[in-house]
User: Fold this.
Amino acid sequence: MQLNSTEDIELDQIDKKIINALQNNARLSNVELAEQINLSPSACLRRTKFLMDKGVFDRFVGLLNRELFQVQGTAFIFISLDRQSEAVFAEFEIAVAQLEQVMECYLMAGDNDYMLKVVYTDAKDYEELYYKKLLRLPGVVGTQTRMALRQVHSNTNITVT
Assistant:
């Protein structure tokens, strides 16, 4: 597999195994990772450092247990802006990135300009987010909300073959 970046690198089967293993469990120690992919610890560390230095991994995160933090709801909100221009989009994107309840934001093609994935603790929390924050974002003239009843599947891995 070849990456499309300023400095292309070739990934061999061992690199791909490292990538997939760390996506499944980023807390693996170097020794555990080396055992899992059948490589010496020093070679494994060298390859892992190379992959990190080349930007193969965007970042490592810990995924929280939503129930422990009373995050009960997820909503998908489609946003329409008053105008479509680079300046309006840039102003909206800077402002929406400041809202901690917005987990993801996508520029869309089609009927709406953006789609947000937001989380909230209860109806009152969502109402406050919606009226006091989302509707006050720069350029917002319309929204459509879809409330998720429950999460059926979630995956953060991109399988590298």
Notes: The chain is about 35% helix and 20% strand.
